[in-house]
Each structure stands twice: as C-alpha cells, then as structure tokens.
Amino acid sequence: MNLEKMTIKEISALLQSKKITSLELTNFFLTRINKLDSKLLTCISVFEVEARQEAQKADIRISQGESGDLLGIPYLLKDNILVQGLKTTSASKMLENYIAPYDATVVKKLKSVGAVLLGKTNLDEFAHGASTENSAFFTTKNPWDLERVPGGSSGGSASAVSAGLCVFALGSDTGGSIRQPASFCGVSGLKPSYGRVSRYGLMAMTSSTDVIGPLTKSVEDGATVLKIISGQDEFDLTTSSFEVCDYLKNIDKNIKGLKIGVVQEFLKEGLEDGVRDGILSAISVFKKMGAKIIDVSLPSNKYSVPAYYIITPSELSSNLARLDGIRYGHSLKLNPKGKSVENLNEIYLKNRGEGFGAEAKRRIMLGTFALSSGYYDAYYKKAMAVKEKIKQEFKKVFSKVDVILTPTSPHTAFKIGSQINDPLKMYLEDIFLTGPSLAGLPAISIPAGFSKKMPFGLQIIANKFKEDLLLNVSYNFQKETDWHKKTPNL
Predict the structure, then answer these.
(1) Is 117 helix (H, G, I), strand (E, B) or coil?
(2) Does 177 qualify as catalytic in the annotation?
(3) When you count CB atoms within 10 A of the terminal residue's CB, does the N or C end of the chain come out lower?
(4) Are 156 and 181 in contact (CB under 8 A)?
C-alpha cells in the first residue's frame, strides 16, 4: 500500500474496515518523517509520544463502532497555531521555547473527531514571507527540487503534504500563504472566507485577513477537513453564524452552464509561458465540461499588493507589540556581575532586536510608521479605502459570473536565495492572491500542470461563504485531470 499517496477517504476506508490501525498508520508517517525530513526540513517539532497516544485512543473509538471522516487520520499543523502543553514557536527566536496554554479552536475540533497530530510545520517567521526562508530555524525545501523554495508562509505544511509526510496539514492564509505554497508544491490549498473558520489560537498577523485552512492531496480532502474546522466560535467574534454546509454533499454536481470569469489582464505580461499555457489549457477543460467562459476585469487589483503591504504591517506591528520579552517572548540574559542595560527602553530594544528576524523588523517598522501621527490618513486610511474599492469590484464581477479563474502565481518555485535580498520582488509574489484576501473571499489553488519541470496552480475564487460552489468547481476539474495525482520522487 502506498499510504503516502492515499487520500483521506481511501485511508479512512482502510481504518473502518480494520485493514490497518491508526497506530500502524501513525508509525508509518512518523517513520517517513524521520527518514525524509532531514533533507526536506518541513517540521519544527514532531510529537512521537503524543501522536501514538492519540492514535491508540482513535483505535479504541473505531473498535467500539465509531466512524468519522478524520478519525485516526494523522496530520501536521503550521507552527503558529496553538496546541495546549506543546511548543508553538511561529518559527521565531522570540518564541523559541513558548509552551501554548490552550488549544486553538481548530485543534480542539480536530481532537474531538479523533484526528492524530504528528507535529508542527515550519513557516516564515510569524507568517511574514512567501518562501519559508524567513524562518529563524531553517529553510524548508521543495520536494520537487531541493534547491527551490516551497513557497510561504505555509511552506512546511505544503512541502509535507506533497512529500507524503502526513495525510493533510493545516496552514494559515493572510495574503496567499496557503495558496502560493500549494501552487509551488503541487497540492490543493484552500483559503476559506474570512469568518468561516475560527482564528482563536492562531498567532495573529493581520487580524482583518488571517484565515486558517487545509492543504491536501485533493479537493475532496479539503472539503472533508473544512467541514470539521468551520463554524461560529464564541472565542472569535469575527466568525460568522452563516450555516456551515456539508461540503461533500454536492461536490460532484455537474457544472454545465456555470459562468466562469477569466481576468484577462492576469494572462498578459509577467506570466511564465508554461504557466500561461497551462491556465489556457485549464480553461479549455472547463469549456469541455459545458461551463461558460466570460472575460472579466479587476482593474483595481494592481493596487491590492501596495494596499495589503500597508494594512498588514500596520496590523502586525500592533499585534506583535506584546512580544517585548517581559511578559511574552525572548528575554536578554542580564549580566549577574552588574547591570547590562540602562533603562526600560534599552530592555525593549535588546529583547526585540535579538528576538525578531529581519523581515519581522522590517514589517514592524513599516507598520509603526504608517500608523504614526501625521501618516495614518495618508497611508492606512487610504489603503483601507482601496480595500473597499477592491471588495466592490469583486461584488460587481460576481453579479455576472459564478466563480473567477486566475493563475495562483506568475511562475513556478524559484531557487532558494534568489529573491531573499529583494523584499519588493518577494512582496509581488502575492499579486493574484491579495485581492481575494482583502475582500474576505474563499479561494483555492489546485494543481494545473508543470512548467520547467515544476508544478503550478490554478486559483479559483468564489463569492463570500460560497465554499460549496468553489469546491464543486474545483472537484470537477480534478475529475477531468490528474495533475493532483502527480507526486515527487523522493
């Protein structure tokens, strides 16, 4: 059995028919992590003892006749999501030894259905980045080419799913951090609508756009996980009371007559030739299925990246202010023979100077500047007006079409180190991704082909809380293609 290539549905069937136990399954993936992760570097922490204990509990539940889509299924979790009693670092020296005091809501939900946590995955520090090179600990590798990045900030989760180190993983997406690494690593990455999944227990980056979502081997797996983690939460007042669908119920519904909007300006200059050809080929697949292709325009999207990179640093500079080394975070070692600091400001300066990496410092400074007296109206307030303009443009387009189709990224994964010294180029990685995030819309990246021997993704965007439609359209594409079944040779 090639367990590393199997979907949630396939593995769940094996568990329910007693052909394998959750403990055997968990041991298989722990062995695979031990064998492969020394070169991939996807995991910050692996919880072997705890995982085996959870697997044994799942086996008891199964033996007592209980069933469930995720019962006994091993998964990995991005290391900015809290698990009570276990280390959560956010890939930062600032929180290198931080032990979470409670479970994130998504973790609580996964525990309740018997999913088995294997470990925590690497990311760009505090989710600040698009390559996982900004981790304070190490750079995760892309399993398709170890000299290339896996994308970011959920690069560890995407690489692990692609390499078959787990059945599924969770990531977080603020401006593309699930979708872009999903594209680079050839997996399915779903960003739900803002407010669909609780953020309680997610270390806040940009509170107005942060969303937790699944990275999976297929769209069907994504629907399975989303059904479990979605819903209103009393601990997160931004969660919606809007009904959570059974996302699997109509996932295979025929899409004949469906209106798919294609943003023509996204298919012009700046797009890698192989990616453009693959997107055009994907459009042909939808045409064959009877969908109507309609040209649409999002003229304000060109302002989405600059607006996002004012809003995001502003909000994260506020969110990270609590990490001063006094109550939370890295504390400098005081010299026992005498004072090593002169005043409180110097303590803050040294604690934060030693604890935060270069990208975190850059964003904190940008955000503090944008929110400072005399600049708030010129920057943050104006960026929020652009955000509203982008939301209205999407609303207008969705009055004409059911979903929107775009590339996920302009190109495939780039070489490690090739963009690390060019922050502006790195920020432009999110050109197709920040718009849906600013508008709070659900979007998914699904494998759509290869360019220069590397995978790339197709992004599909739906109107708010239309995850059922988004998954239905994506599932139909995967029924007609086999890009999502391709796996790297490791």
Answers:
(1) strand
(2) yes
(3) N
(4) no
The one catalytic residue in 22, 92, 154, 177 is 177
Among left, alpha and beta (phi > 0; psi -120 to 50; other), residue 115 is beta
Please report, for residues 16, 86, 87, 125, 249, the alpha-carbon distance to residue 95 in angstroms, rounded to integers and kept in the order given. Answer: 40, 12, 9, 10, 41
List 12, 22, 78, 217, catalytic entry = 78
As a whole number of angstroms, the distance between CA 458 and CA 478 comes to: 11
153 catalytic residue (yes or no): yes
Residue with tokens 């990685």: 429
The answer to whether residues 101 and 88 touch, using CB atoms and an 8 Å cutoff, is no
* Span 171-199, pLDDT tens digits: 999 999 999 999 999 999 999 999 999 99
Least confident of 29-43, 199-213, 327-341: 327-341
Q: Which residue among the candidates 12, 135, 153, 172 is catalytic per the annotation?
A: 153
**Contact between 143 and 40 (Cβ < 8 Å):** yes
The arithmetic mean of pLDDT across residues 33-51, rounded, is: 98
- Residue 155 gets which letter from DSSP? H
Residue 478, SS3? helix
Going 430 to 435 to 440 to 441, the CA torsion angle's sign is negative
DSSP 243-276: PPP-TTTTTT---TT-EEEEEGGGGSTTS-HHHH
The pLDDT value recorded for residue 405 is 98
Q: What residues contact residue 69 under an 8 Å CB cut-off, 6+ apart? A: 8, 9, 12, 113, 224, 227, 228
| Residue owning tokens 């910050």 | 44
Tokens of residue 394, six digits = 């999407």
In the numeric block, the tokens 């739900």 are attached to 192
pLDDT digits (tens, 9 = 90+) for 345-403: 888 888 899 899 999 999 999 999 999 888 888 899 999 999 999 999 999 999 999 99
302 is catalytic: no
Whether residue 36 is predicted with pLDDT greater than 70 in this model: the reply is: yes
